[in-house]
Design a protein that fits this description.
heterodimer; A: mainly alpha; Non-ribosomal Peptide Synthetase Peptidyl Carrier Protein, Chain A; globular; B: alpha/beta; Peroxisomal Thiolase, Chain A, domain 1; 2 domains; 17-stranded mixed beta sheet; three-stranded mixed beta sheet; 16 helices; 22 strands; 22% strand
């Protein structure tokens, strides 16, 4: 799980061009949207691509992912349970 | 105000306006599901030309896109008395991606790719047009921007006739962009309906030939483009302001002094996405247009991007000639909170004016008023020439910076230099790091102007009018690599958004709270005289009192130039 969280953080940093942010800067349980990293709706779509590309998880839209996208921890939990690759 | 001399439509539903109109009356649509279409792995629903149509419409020596534009212009020209070769005739091409389907995954195929301005010149060359063409690339509102440009250029005396062609073809490139945004409906789209699930893509071309109203000819019974208005809601790059403020403002600006009871219909954008339709309904109610019937045609054609603002206006003109209000295909039960009049059945009217509204990515909104009634010309007339003055200027290349003509020492070069300038000279705006190199260029150059101006209060009505040659070629190539590369088909939404050049104006509008118009024009080559005329015409024919404008081109990660200034009157 630790490894997954670290990998996921790096994938999000790379995909969202969070220049200057390191995995250590992101709290596992801090909110990703609004406050926290201040991500927006396009970023949410980008996380959907990460789930599909690296973990074989398909989400139809961002609203389906609302609970999943609360924090890095919640996304990692979801990946653990649903990953197909 | 300018006159509509003739028009044309070529779509999957037919090759003449008559064929298209009759198809709509019969309730026909070309929307159909596509599986494994041209390398798109996931099924989508769209309105696309059949193979037979493609072959029939092909013009020898021209790409599919160019052929389609040529056919549409040729048909419109056949019914208009216009000297197409005259230097007093302007060609305006409205498109979001032009020949992008020719852009391949490898450099080897790039020879076939043509920048939008070159594409426009090639089309102009077919007809022997002598002027430099202008490509309007303003996302979904391109067709409305293009017609308003025609109005401004004619009223300002820069030309006597304008050929406006709105067109887009669909390809793997564009389907992937909209799949990455998750904005495509898995079924035929349902504008304003409670069950709507997104938009369908469509391809079409539609041309309009415009002429002067004061040419001494009898214009009775002819449609006129009376006036129009553009703005930006400075809210979000890919979602409209939920209170409809941007659309409300362009409606109010356009209908100022016009009796709303004269309107037969409002031709809405009606993309059938959750946010667009909801926003439009709120804006229409706030603009006191709840009782004017809404026309929405995406259920027949899908979203035809650069063609939409032209094609939809042409069909409403044709329908109103018959006193007909076209049924809204796909609509059944109201699913928006703003009060509007909408029906899936044909309506009748004896009125002969209508409003076209439209909104697009980058936060831009537009409205145009058309009328056949001659007597009422509220708000129109010959343009009063204004005299904009340069307040500050910035020239930024991949290795140099000057502000108001003073050279400023910079460190590094290319994209890294932009980041260095951002870090050392500009205030914190973390979104900067999410921008592609072209957006970073325009952002940095614009913010240096804003910093130099050091205004106590930002001019909220400031316009942003940019020109370039390379459109968004850097991000276009990257986008292609996410859908054709070895990693499979994973289009990235945060990359895809930067395949629309006007997004860069949206970034600057949001950063500064500018709510004036944001327009993006592409030329085959930098032409200061033409750019100056467009800027003059924009000032003369709108209430814009200040503008950031100029040349902003980025042809590769480390090859770019921004030469822009603040103008005020």
């Amino acid at each position: 799980m630790e490894d997954l969280i670290l990998t996921l953080k790096q994938q999000i940093i790379d995909a969202l061009n969070l220049e200057g942010v390191t995995p250590e800067d992101i709290d596992d349980d801090a909110p990703l949207f609004g406050d926290g990293l201040g991500l927006d709706s396009i970023d949410a779509l980008e996380i959907i691509v990460i789930l599909d590309k690296y973990y074989g998880i398909k989400l139809a839209n961002a609203s389906e992912g609302k609970a999943i996208f609360k924090s890095i921890g919640s996304i990692a939990d979801y990946i653990e349970k649903h990953r197909t690759k | 105000m300018i006159r509509v001399l003739s028009y044309s439509i070529i779509s999957p539903l037919g090759e003449t306006v008559g064929q298209n109109y009759r198809a709509l009356l019969a309730g026909r649509s070309a929307l159909a599901p596509y599986d494994n279409w041209h390398g798109v792995p996931d099924r989508f629903v769209a309105s696309l030309f059949s193979r037979e149509q493609r072959e029939k419409l092909a013009v020898n020596g021209y790409s599919r896109f160019e052929s389609l534009a040529i056919r549409a212009i040729e048909d419109a020209l056949s019914r208009a008395d216009v000297d197409i070769r005259s230097p007093r005739t302007l060609f305006v091409l409205s498109t979001t991606k032009a020949n992008v389907e020719e852009l391949g995954p490898t450099e080897a195929r790039d020879g076939a790719y043509l920048a939008p301005g070159s594409t426009a010149r090639k089309i102009a060359g077919y007809f022997g047009m002598t002027n430099d063409p202008v490509v309007v690339c303003n996302a979904c509102i391109s067709g409305v921007t293009a017609q308003l440009l025609a109005d401004r250029m004619i009223e300002s005396g820069y030309c006597d006739h304008a050929v406006v062609c709105g067109i887009d073809c669909q390809s793997l490139f564009e389907v992937a962009v909209f799949q990455s945004f998750k904005s495509l409906s898995p079924e035929d789209c349902r504008p304003f309906d409670i069950e709507r699930r997104g938009l369908n893509l469509g391809e079409a071309a539609s041309a309009v030939i415009f002429g002067r109203c004061d040419d001494g000819k009898d214009g009775a019974g002819q449609w006129k483009l009376v006036k129009g208005c553009l703005d930006n809601d400075a809210y979000h790059l890919s979602a409209p302001s939920p209170d409809g403020a941007g659309t409300l403002a362009v409606i109010s600006g356009t209908l100022d002094g016009w009796d709303r009871d004269d309107l037969a219909v409002v031709s809405a954008h009606g993309t059938a996405t959750m946010f667009n339709d909801q926003m439009e309904s709120v804006a229409l109610e706030r603009a006191s247009l709840s009782s004017v019937p809404v026309s929405a045609l995406k259920g027949y054609y899908g979203h035809t991007f650069g063609a939409a603002g032209v094609l939809e206006a042409v069909l409403v003109m044709r329908a109103l000639d018959d006193g007909c209000i076209l049924p809204v295909r796909g609509f059944d039960e109201i699913g928006v909170s703003g009060r509007i009049s909408i029906s899936n059945r044909e309506g009748r009217t004896d009125k002969s004016s209508f409003l076209k509204i439209i909104s697009g990515f980058g936060g831009c909104n537009g409205a145009l008023l058309y009328s056949k009634a001659l007597a009422k010309t509220a708000g129109s007339g010959a343009a009063v020439k204004k005299n904009p003055q340069t307040v500050h200027s910035v020239r930024l290349t991949d290795s140099s910076l000057s502000i108001d003509g003073r050279n400023i020492p910079v460190e590094q070069s290319g994209k890294a230099m932009l980041t260095w300038i951002y870090r050392t000279m500009l205030t914190d705006w973390p979104k900067f790091y999410k921008m592609d190199v072209f957006n970073r260029l325009v952002y940095v150059a614009s913010q240096l102007l804003v910093r130099e101006e050091n205004a106590a209060v930002p001019d909220v009505n400031r316009a942003l009018v940019f020109f370039n040659r390379s459109s968004t070629i850097v991000s276009d190539r990257k986008h292609i690599s996410t859908i054709c590369g070895g990693d499979g088909f994973f289009p990235s939404p945060s990359l895809a958004i930067f395949t629309l050049p006007n997004i860069t104006a949206g970034e600057v509008a949001i950063r500064n709270g500018y709510r004036g118009e944001t327009s993006f024009y592409i030329l085959d080559e930098r032409n200061e005289r033409l750019m100056g005329n467009i800027v003059d015409a924009t000032f003369s024919c709108s209430d814009v009192s200040s503008m950031i404008t100029g040349w902003v081109d980025c042809s590769a990660e480390d090859t770019f130039e921004a030469d822009i200034r603040i103008l005020t009157i």
